[in-house]
Amino acid sequence: MPRPVEKLVSLTINGNEVQAPAGMMLADAALKYGDVEIPVFCYDAKIGPPVGACRMCLVEIEGIPKMQAGCSVAVTDGMVVHTDTPTVKAAQEAVLEFILINHPLDCPVCDKGGECPLQDNAFGWGGGLSRFIEPKRHFEKPLALSPLIAIDRERCILCYRCVRYSQEVAEDFQLVLEERGADTFVTTFDGHPYVAPFSGNIIELCPVGALTSRPYRFRARPWDIEQAGSVCTLCPAQCNVSFSVRDERVLRVLGRDHEGVDDGWLCDKGRFAYQAIHVDQRITAPMLRDGGQLRPVTWEIAIEAAANLLSHAGANTGALVGGETTNEEGVLLTHLMRETLGSHDLDSRPGGALELELLRALNAPTLQASVPDLQYAHAVLVLDCEPVDDAPILDLRLRKGVRHHGVKLLIGSSRPSALDERAAHSARFAPGCGEAFAAALGAELAGQPSASLAEAAGADPADVVALATELREAGEEVVILWGERLTAGPRRNEGARALLNLAQELGLDGQDGGGLLEIPSGTNSRGLREVGVLPNASIGLGDAATVGRDSEQIGEALAAGDLSAVILLHSDPLLDQPSSALWQRALGKASAVIAHAAFLTPAVLEHANVVFPAESYAEKEGTVVHPDSRVQRLRRSIARQGETRAEWALLAELAARIGNDPKALTCSMVSARIFEQVPFYAGLSLDLIGGVGIRWSEREAAASFPAAPAAPFTLDPPPAAASPNGLLRLGSFRSIWASPDVEASPALAFLHPRQRVELSPADAERLGIAHGENVTVASNGDSVTGLAHIRAAAPDGTVFLQTSIPEGSAALLEGPLVEVKRS
Amino acid sequence: MTDTLLFKGIDEPGLNTIDVYLARGGYEQLGRALKMEREDLITELSGSGLRGRGGAGFPMGKKASFIPKGDMQKYVVCNADESEPGTFKDRELIQKNPHQLIEGLIIAAYAIDATINYIYIRGEYDQQADILDASIAEARERGFLGEKILGSDFSVQLELSRGAGAYICGEETGLLDSLEGKRGNPRLKPPFPANEGLFNGPTLINNVETLSAIPSIIKLGAEGYAAIGVKDSSGTKLVSISGNVERPGNYEIELGTSSRELIYDLAGGPVDGRAIKCWFPGGSSTPVLTADDLDVGYDYDSIAAAGSMLGSGAIIVVDETQSVVELAYKLAKFYAHESCGKCTPCREGTRWTVHMVERIKDGTATPMDLDIMAAVQEQIIGHCLCVLGDAMAMPIGSLIAKFRDEFEAEIEDNRNERERKLAEEFAAAEVEIEGISA
Amino acid sequence: MADAQRHVARFTNDSRIPGWDRAADLTKEPAVVPDAATTEVPAELRAAIEDAVRRFPVGDSAFIPALYAVQEQYGWCSPEGIEQAASVLGRTPAALTAVATFYDMFRMEPLGRKTVYVCTNISCSLCGADELLEALEAELGEAPDVHIRGFECLGACDIAPMASVNGIYVGPIGLDQVPELARQIVAGDDPLPAKQLIKRPCADPKVAEK
Cβ(C116)–Cβ(C147) under 8 Å? Predict the structure, then answer.
């Protein structure tokens, strides 16, 4: 459904004329345009339509005999509203007196004290007295609602925000009200904990201290902390966050509502993984391998050692750059590699280099959809990605679009999606066959249906027809939300072509409200490509003077001895790269491994010669680019922990030691250089980016984006999906919780995934495997073990395993077929 | 007094089966209605002056005329969640003459072009629901429900949905939520069900008695029906009379009959010639009237003029031997038990009121608490999401206003009683202490 | 939550309401939609729920019939039964308990299949319902598989004081008939056949005149 068009109406609030958009709720309009606060408890526009339950917002509207709830009356032209009459005042006092009947006055020991809407409303609108002399209720408190959330039912004022959130925003429907009337209480089913990817948002939504964060409880008072706004870089969704900082420690992460990015929500990883900043196992001093052991050393020794190793290796150095790297760090790394060491072997994409022309075509500004487009498009096709794992907050945005704006959600994926039940149609294809699936869909849309393409994708041709029909009938605003894995692996270029053809069939180029939106593998993947951290592109996606090796080739060259040193900038290839076996060999053979890391992940622990401590995202400054082309700014919110130093400065220092000083005195100097050198960033500045970021694709400078070839492309027929023949196809996925930050955060550690082997009921029965049993998955002599997890939704013939976990990752296996048996 | 319409021959054996109903001319009015233009039918219903018999008394034809025209799915929902204390008229209609209801409902469905319809019956009416289930099946079998009924172009479905014990589901939007399988919380209005009701479609919600009256309206014609009763209260009304009377039961009356006639002549008045202390004219949610109001005509406007409401047409008679404090306690506990908990004033106000009455009962209240109690009722009225809060606050408020002396006397007595008991306990304790020291 | 002992389940003691002191058991997994592949459902329960889904196909309209089916199967809305129903309906079990606990007729504890509701609302209590409930409770207090409780207005004030015995309305019940009624309830016999509402003629004299 297209975005609503704003039309202004005039109304009178307390005698003052106010202009507000028609349809806006009175409580919002009064505050935003009339500078009049109508107190509310149950209402928060971001939860959805108002329910008018708490009755705090009663106002008088001329011409309506009964008082109306200001949260739920849309403003209309000529409306005359009074919020300060004796009648309204009496109603407000009455409601507050009722609300405070049960609410304990334990504000001095309540976490919410000082930032509590109930305190504020009681102070602003309450009568100050209560005539309730009966004993208040007393319950055991606080109780655990989950490992992350404590519930204090005495304090609950039954505003419904949390349960509405669980049911209508997150749609996990785990948190409900039980009982009726004054006995009503917030709870879960039969004592189960409320554990869901987005559970923590209820803490922020609660207008009293009934739901509190267990990791934050009693750590600070509002007057002890400072709020520092920045961006969460734990995943490509790049939610805008605010750190609650006390004594240079992050104690809490809150959302910093940004309609264009996160819509005001955070996932639990973003909300609680800040703990990893302050854990003992974090690397906060440089280390050097000495006698097989990594030992802390001084910065001078470490820098000298690294500079020596790199100088020695010279052009035989490769570099892998992880997604948490900023643009500034990326640019300084390219300076170190290309202009200092003379090596062009650097890559920020784990799946192998994509033809530059195709990369340009995929990133063309006219083809980029924005995050809000997901909410308002006629249809969204989720292609070869799982939003809740890959960029969690987008999952909520898609649900909102379906629930409130009639977005038609369509899904094409290998593994069953969490969004399947909200989708108008969902189709499955064999793992790694996204290219064939996109080609089949494109062909169907082009009016050249090809059952053989669908079969090559391991998909049901009827599914392809159904998706194409839905897409054709939906309307012109279509967004394809696609995962980087579609353009990774040996068929990556064909995958990109198939996707571009599909976009062309749907007329997405230049389509307002539609387009492509990639979920890349790394947080700042988009920015790193745009500043040239690729083997085949220079800064600004220009042609590379010399084309270097891509990530896979770097691994092979290391293993073959053609490269001798490797820089791992926020990258652990044993976790991030598709083949663990290759990288075990590569790192084993490398004579120098220089790592920038926050944790001793496998590659760092076993292979690094020099380790530099990586800054956490709360310590970092610089810029990153959101997958929808929004340039965002990281601001340093706390002092760097331990001996950690700015990484941009370290990269500059290394280059200077080796003999080519990039002359970067401050990080903002590097930012400015980037804005000058990337043609389509022209005119940007840190000030302009500010706290909310700016989408470069919407600016005039976007016109200078390098020209790209136009679809349609002739496609090379894709190879057929492997036929199981008694074995199973191997599918892999990376869970939202598979991250070193989650593992290191004490509060989240319980979520850090262990391997599980997802099977369909039919396959499980055939193999004689029961749910919860230990099973072994093997291929080519390698094997991993995990607990069997039988899912009704799992497609027959495929087994799904997780990647990016330290033990038993799917990356240890070589597909496409594996053998599964009871351990 | 006019002849019975709704209750006509209602005790005829087997009337609940379709053959007996058909033999009495059943479903003939449906045939006639299906030959009418929809607009004429709605005009006819409006012209009859029939007002909703569920409690609010909103003109039925007008409500039907609010349903938008168009292709969207529309619904008729029959509210058979009769749960207003003192009310049991719908039960008798459903149990003894279910086809009259089904016929009326199909006519209403035709009038607004609703092809999917529901009867929501309270779960406690198990026997009645079984009867209704059988009747719906019969009607389906005989072609009164289903595709293109009686040779017309109108296709219609009807399902019976059983509630599970919640007074609030008698509130029309609470009923809709319950019918949708949710907790029966009332919804915010607007939007009204006529525009956005069941599954967000336009929905006409009517009570059993209202729908059951429709065949008579078609038969008598709008004018014929409107001629019964008094101005703005046309037709016959079922009145459930209960409490302290000799002959409790349902009576079909012409609106406008005097209340005294109903309570004394029909129901026989209080037993043993006792005097009436107070009476609820329209279910427990209406402000009480006293013996002084017995000559008020029993119709919508006269009862309103006397300071109460005709409500569901349920008269509860309370004789002089009953305590108003106990009455207030029963009332408050009922509404606190049935409050859905969604909105603050109702949830907290009903519970607080229970506490205050409990303090009167245990002798810890003072006459000042009566002022607080009355003030709390005022704080509830007009501030709630639906009418349940008001439904407690109005009768309790009227009890305090009309029987303040009795409340004060009971407060005094209970205080004295409590003090006497405390003194006794204290004395007993002293004796024991002396015993120890001795 | 329905309460076996207290006939007015709510408000007798505000300080302890069942459930309010309940913490989550952190050793349990979150209660997501039970996977059909790993949830076994008795065939008759599945059939009853699927029939409800057929009759009420839109949204969650089949919830209440499904809960009745669970109660029929297990005698109460047991967590196990709720999970099975949730699996058939494809919803979380919490969605079902939220609904079940809202309504008085769903038993959230195993309280006995023979249900006796004694109306204690205004009209009935004016005619001695509280004494009737007390007498019936005294008589049936220890009886196995019997769930007796006071109930709000059952819509049968014309036979006050009355009770609903497994859905059959009987009244007016004199205190002298309590032992007989109690015996019938325990034995599963037809309760007070002469006093059943279903057999009662209309009170309106005009009806009898015809």
Answer: yes
| β partners of residue B234 | B229
Whether residue C47 contacts residue A212, with contact meaning beta carbons closer than 8 Å, is answered with no
List pLDDT tens digits, range C149-181: 999 999 999 999 999 999 999 999 999 999 999
Average pLDDT over residues B55-72: 91
| Cβ within 8 Å of B, C 18-77 | 55-56, 58-65, 67-68
- In this prediction, residue A814 carries a pLDDT of 87
CATH hierarchy code of domain A8-84: 3.10.20.740
User: Stretch B35-53: mean pLDDT, rounded?
Assistant: 94
Pick from A133-137, A346-350, B110-114, B421-425: least confident? A133-137
CATH number (2.40.40.20, 2.60.120.620, 1.20.1630.10, 2.60.40.10) of A728-822 reads: 2.40.40.20
Whether A134 and B352 lie within 8 Å, measured CB to CB: yes
Interface test with C, best of B124, B140, B320, B361 (most C CBs within 10 A): B124
CA distances from B394 to A625, B129, B378, C143 (A): 62, 32, 9, 41
Sheet of strand A211-213: strand arrangement: A143-144, A149-151, A211-213
Strands (E), A31-157: 58-61, 68-69, 80-82, 143-144, 149-151
Instruction: Indicate the CATH number for domain B324-413.
Output: 1.20.1440.230
User: pLDDT tens digits, residue range B425-438?
Assistant: 888 876 665 555 54
The two structure tokens encoding residue C44: 């008759």
Contact flag A192-C98 (C-beta cutoff 8 Å): no
- Residue-range domain boundaries for chain A: 8-84, 287-351+524-704, 361-519, 728-822
Q: Indicate the residue of C19, C29, C30 with minimum beta-carbon distance to A187.
A: C19
Chain C hits for A143, Cβ within 8 Å: 21-24
- Contact yes or no for C24 and A140 at CB 8 A: no
Task: Map residue A366 onto helix, strand or coil.
Answer: helix
d(CA A348, CA A164): 41
Q: Which residues belong to CATH 3.40.50.11540 in chain B? A: 18-227
Contact by Cβ (8 Å): A328, A622 = yes
- The ipTM of this complex is 0.93
Q: What is the CATH number of domain A287-351+524-704?
A: 3.40.50.740
Taking Cα atoms as reference points, which of A233, A302, A305, A333 lies closest to residue A620?
Answer: A233
- The 10s digit of each residue's pLDDT in B303-347 is 999 999 999 999 999 999 999 999 999 999 999 999 999 999 999
Chain B residue with CA closest to C89: the answer is: B181
Neighbours of B178 (CB within 10 A): 28
Q: Which domains does chain C have, with CATH numbers?
A: 1-109 (1.10.10.1590), 114-205 (3.40.30.10)
Confidence of residue A200 (pLDDT cuts 50, 70, 90): very high
Chains that touch B (3 or more CB pairs under 8 A): A, C
Reported CATH class of domain B18-227: alpha beta
Considering chain B, tell me which residue range(s) the CATH 3.10.20.600 domain(s) occupy: 233-319
Kindly report the CATH class assigned to A361-519: alpha beta
| Architecture field, domain B233-319 | Roll (3.10)
In sequence order, what are the residues at sequence separation of 6 or more whose Cβ sits closer than 8 angstroms to the Cβ of residue A128?
none
Helix (H) or strand (E) holding B32: helix B28-34
Which of A26, A42, A72, A134 has the most B C-beta neighbours within 10 Å, making it the best mutation to test the interface with B?
A: A134
Task: Report the residue of A180, A183, A194 to disrupt the C interface, i.e. the one with the largest count of C CBs within 10 Å.
Answer: A183
Partner residue facing C157 (CB), from B86, B180, B351:
B86
Return the closest-CA partner of residue A530 out of A501, A518, A650, A503: A518
